[in-house]
Design goal:
By secondary structure, the chain is an alpha/beta fold. It contains 18 helices and 16 strands. The strands form three sheets. A seven-stranded mixed sheet has the order 7-6-5-4-8-9-10, sandwiched between helices. The chain has a six-stranded mixed sheet with strand order 12-14-13-11-15-16. It has a three-stranded antiparallel sheet with strand order 1-3-2, with helices on one face.
Length: 452
Amino acid sequence: GVQEKDCEVAVQALTREFKEEIKVGSMYPMLVQQGLAAVSIVGENMQHTPGIAGKLFGTLGRHGISVIAFAQGAKETNISFVVPAQQLSKTMNLLHNSFFLSENKVLNIFVCGVGTVGTQLIEQIRMQHATLMANQHLQLNIVGIANSRGYIFNAEGLDLTNYREQLQSAAPLDLSTINCQLSTVNNSIFVDCTASADVATTYQVLLENNISVVTANKIAASAEYNQYARLKQTALEHGVKFLFETNVGAGLPIIRTINDLRNSGDKILRIEAVLSGTLNFIFNELSANVPFSETIRRAKEQGYSEPDPRIDLSGKDVIRKIVILAREAGYPVEQDDVEQQLFVPDHYFQGSLEEFWKTLPQLDADFEAQRQTMEQKGLRWRFVATLDEGKVRVALQTVDATHPFYQLEGSNNIVLLTTERYHDYPMMIRGYGAGASVTAAGVFADIMAVSN
């Protein structure tokens, strides 16, 4: 290694000295690499202390820093190595955190999307900051926040008391620039609280740059299976996390439980679930005094449904969720593989939203007649998603009082997992399946999983 100003002279001298060896092919011609930086970690406590080199190179490798060359002194008091110059600042920060700082660990978080879930998440992180520092020596540092118009970024951490005011004069949203900026920050996590397909397309590059991804956005995990599998494999290869617990069941630990079962050697045989809080609310509200069209209007007014309720009524959201669960259970299914038995005629999904609301009451009489018949038989409607021996189905079903789904209240979700171990008595996970605060809490839990 030489200074860049001496590079040309050094190459000429070496080429003259070894010209015969180069000529006969026993040596390659001189190769010059520029734009490098040399770093040394030094200290007497390195002597006779196993694992220092492993910790050093493991830390650098996990964060995507390539070590071009290294050397260790015979007395074990120093290790020197060479890295690309553009990664020098990140290298120094990593070494400082790993070897010289206090026992506090720092996670740098970029939150994309500040709707109801993103706003709740930022507030939960702010409220827990002191507790996590005191109890776990963990500092959660929000370095970036983005909305649909722009973003703000500060590698040292943002002031969370006025981030909305800062966003008013934010730089235009540029996902590639955000990716580059996050790549310079160690222990970074990209958190997606949007429903944007454009944001979901950035996950691959983020993971390749050793940035963990935590997302409440269902698009990536329910896209083509090859794309989903590639994201999972990339995260594994780069030693980072791709977590999406809140894609199904908001804050309920459904995906984590499935992963724990499979990792311990169990096999998922069957999944039966009510996964739409919106549809469960609709069928719980339905009564002699509240017709079908009114239940949908109430679901929209109370914030359970999408602005266009046809998205919920089409079953698309449930299809995405059961596809994600099936994949996590080990079955390579696509959305097109899902058998659909819907309960609203196809023509209601055509035309404008205004036309939908105008014609919707035409369904009320038929639904009321069916409801009365079910009431006499002691039955209730539930929109059920099922995985059985690799086959996936969503359908409106009737259940009686003996079924676990019968008493499901409000917008709650419920999942029954039948496995080789939980065969005769399936495992049941039940609770709030919608809501900004519980979804944000689920995202927060995924962030904590990255920190661990």
